[in-house]
Design goal:
Elements lengths: L2 H21 L2 H27 L7 H17 L5 H23 L4 H21 L1 H4 L5 E2 L15 H24 L1 H18 L4 H27 L1 E2 L1 H5 L1 H14 L6 H16 L6 H15 L3 H26 L1
Antiparallel strand pairs: 1-2
Length: 327
Amino acid sequence: MNKTTKVTAWLAGLILLIFIPKLIGVYYMNMMVTFAILAVYAVSLNMLLGYTGLLSFGHAMFFGMGGYGTALALTHIDGIGVLPAIGIGAMASMILALVLSPLVVRVSGTAFAMLHLAFGQLMFVLALKLYKVTGGEDGIGNFPMPGIFTESLKTSPEHFYFLVMIVMGACTWLMWFITKTPFGQIQVGIRDNAKRIDYLGYKVPQTKAVVYTLSATFAGVAGSLYGLSHNLVSADGSLGLGMSFAPIIATMIGGVGSFFGPILGVAIFQGIDELILRYTESTELVMGVILILVVMFLPTGFMGLIRKLNIKWNARSAKKAEMEKVS
């Protein structure tokens, strides 16, 4: 695909996103909102898993912290706007990551994964126990949702759709940009051979801490918007194990290490979930079978399959062109 075709495709996609509220109903527009939020959440996890080689079983604690931070800000600060409230949610996740990073960046592999499972469960229990702050099992719901200009986001789903698309689009671009910088190359180097990166003079623990904090902050932004989309933040909905494993599954289905793999994985995940629910409620069973098949036959996910098909197609086209030239 040449540069002109790529620019045309991106412009067509942008125009389509602008007119989607007019083309589809509220139900599918809300599905797009959920897809955008979960896609950014999965990409934020992939900054750790795919680019730095750190598997986290507790990423939902940052997602939930963002949601609780925003909900508490909107509940207790009079006159606060929705964007500063989202900023407070992101900052809450960032502070949590800064507190944990001196400890977690010194471990890797299974220890890193299990440590986050423990921290994630600790945050889940704290959210249930601190009833006066978090609302316990009921969570924080029906909090005020001011609009971007005047109208409340509760009564204007189209405004909320555009807010999510702009914020999530900016987050996605920022994460993509980071992966294309020299810092992103160091991330990949740490994933492939941390000792060599250390020998080259780079500070591996400090680099991991920066990646970890960035990943947590983007997860916090996604969690803030997820809470706003439901007008509810609860321990089960934002901090549960399911919310920690969902981005891992989406990333594995889409393709670990590929930037757009988690986005494709969330699209597949959401599409299958929507289709299965029409016939049965056993979505976890079906998704488990799909994950097993992907791990067995597509270890690089669907993005890996697309890449292989593209290489074969280009090789066949080149061979055909060479034969025509000879004849």
